Amino acid sequence: MIQKELFTAIETHYNSQLPFVAYRKPNNSFVKAILQKDHTVRTVNDFTESGFVFSPFDSKNDAILFPLEQSISINCDCVFSSEISNNTNLKSNSETSQNTYEQHLELVQKGIRAIRNGTFEKVVLSRVEGLPISEENPIQLFQSLLSVYPTAFVYLWYHPDIGLWLGATPETLLNIEGLRFKTMSLAGTKKHNDTSETAWGTKEINEQQIVTDYIVNNLQGVLNNINVTGPNTVKAGQLFHLQSKISGILKSGILKSVIETLHPTPAICGLPKAEAKNFILNNEKYNREFYTGFLGELNIKTSKSRNTNRRNVENNAYSSIKTTSEFFVNLRCMQIKNKHALIYVGGGITKDSDPQLEWEETVNKTQTMMRVLLN
């Protein structure tokens, strides 16, 4: 399928108010779309299903599934050229008020007090910022995200009974191919300052290590041969993060138990998980919905040739079929609702956090979505 046909099919599905997801994986040129044939809201039961999953932050709520057997799958090798400004100090007409600013500082201060009182070690606190938009053109916004963020998982997700979401997330929750498992620990944020070197402070280094230690310790029960590399500095849009890569071999093929172990991670919730999550639900004073949830392909069968020499066509016939699942954490995202773009942002709070700096970090993170909304 050619590029124009792909986006025409997506737009037709959207105009018909039928559920769909379109997405592109990091550092990849293939845009895929799963177009559900009816309006039914289907949910994940035990993660043995096959399709595309969109799961909320609160795992007590249902994860939405677009099952392959009730959908049409299309894809295209697409090329995009960015025409969007690289201005890292974008100004907006967002509805951020003095009251919003003061509420977030108060929330962060409350989180720091809870940490110092021993309630938990870390908590991730967030807010939502509204930007009025004159018209809703999600296909164009999706194409802009594809142009600007080639190293992110970029998606456009829609269900008429649930809502419209877009994002460009830098964080993998998990990648499973057969029994081979990969994930990452991503924490700490600094704004890009046009230099190749980034000086990380104690707060960011400790925050990232907390996330790494938690993931490794909790995966001991489900993985063999755990390996950790990093942390290294990685760039996502106009922001830098600290990242460690974690891999291993699954002890069993039960995906549900692995997801329950990982989600929500300390990078988007806190540690200990139960106490931090309870604090978030009781104090953020808004519903995160799918922000800091996860999304991606579930139990997709893929074929891989055992021969890496493309010229040897005969041996290429010997290929292996593997089942793969790949989920991404829903960061750097927005919801389009009632002619507003609702941009969700947050940051990790530790005992060393400075409320003013935490506010500025959320402002920096809004620019991922602002760059495509204000051009």
Question: Which blocks of ≥5 consecutive residues have pLDDT under 50?
Answer: 85-93
Order of neighbouring strands in the sheet with most strands? 5-2-1-7-8-16-17-6-13
CATH architecture: 4-Layer Sandwich
Please compute the radius of gyration using only Cα atoms: 20 Å
Number of helices: 7
What is the CATH topology assignment?
Anthranilate synthase
* SSE ordering: HEEEEEHEHEEEEHEEHEHEEEEH
What share of the residues lie within helices? 25-40%
Q: Could you report the average pLDDT, rounded to the nearest whole number? A: 88
Described by strand count, sense and barrel closure, the largest sheet is: 9 strands, antiparallel
Pfam family, one: Chorismate_bind
Domain Chorismate-utilising enzyme C-terminal: 102-365
InterPro entries: ADC_synthase, Chorismate_C
Protein name: Isochorismate synthase
